[in-house]
Amino acid sequence: MKNVLTFAALLLVLLFAAVPLHAADKPVQLALFNPVQIFPEKASIIGLRLSILYGKNVNMMGFDVGSVTRTTGNFEGMQANVVGIVNGNTTGIQFGVVPVTKRSMTGLQCGFGTVSGHFEGAQLGFMNVTGVLNGLQGGFMNVSGVADVAQFGAVNVTGTMIGLQCGCANISGDADGLQLGTLNITGTSTGLQIGLLNVTGTTTRLQIGLINVIERGGWLPVLPIINGSKKKPIACHQIL
């Protein structure tokens, strides 16, 4: 028993030693509103931050909970705030009404409105906004500059789609993959559109739906049921 307790204590020491504390790093922060907080905003927190109204620090690693928090540097860990703002990069989980990462986010964002500069992982909320998506957006409205993998929502909007858009209305500048919904609109399609109304400027593949519109290079400008590119024939195994 003594050996087990000794080993456990040694393991805890090693775990804490793996995260070095510098002079500006503090293990806990309690904030009423900045600057009324235990440690000033220039300090970094490795451990726990509790912000009753508004807390602000440079970097944060650990568990962050409260009303409104701002991390001017980078965040690693888990946030559970009404509004959580990270000016730098986030690795981990952001929960809240409005979780925001201004630069790069890797992990999970979940809230009413989620915002990030570059996102890798899953964004889940009523409205999700990111510059570049590598992963999944799921919500009522999803917006991204580039979407690589999947968007699921009532309205999905992206500049460039690579993968899947699934919703009532799917809109993209360029689409390489599958658009599946009531209304599918894209400037250029190198994939497949399936819906009631499919609209594209040009395509190299197929449209399947009630009304299919191809502005340039289609079998016909408008066709019911199916339309496609007249530049080259498409075999059945090439549809997807």
Q: Major sheet, described briefly? A: 9 strands, mixed
Shape: elongated
* SS summary, helix count: 1
Largest sheet strand order: 2-1-3-4-5-6-7-8-9
Task: Work out the number of β strands.
Answer: 9
Task: Provide the residue-averaged pLDDT.
Answer: 89
Strand fraction: over 45%
Provide an overview of this structure.
With 240 residues, the protein is mainly beta. It contains 1 helix and 9 strands. It folds into 2 domains: 25-115, no CATH class; 118-230, no CATH class. The chain has a 9-stranded mixed beta sheet with strand order 2-1-3-4-5-6-7-8-9, with no helix packed on it. The radius of gyration is 24 Å and the shape is elongated. Mean pLDDT is 89; it is low at 1-19 and 233-240.
Give me a quick take on this structure.
By secondary structure, this protein is mainly β. It is 7% helix and 74% strand.
Descriptive terms for the model:
mainly beta; 9 strands; 240 residues; single chain; disordered C terminus
Write the layout of secondary structure elements.
Blueprint: H1 2-17, E1 25-33, E2 36-37, E3 44-57, E4 60-71, E5 75-86, E6 90-189, E7 192-203, E8 206-214, E9 222-228
Parallel strand pairs: 1-3, 3-4, 4-5, 5-6, 6-7, 7-8
Antiparallel strand pairs: 1-2, 8-9
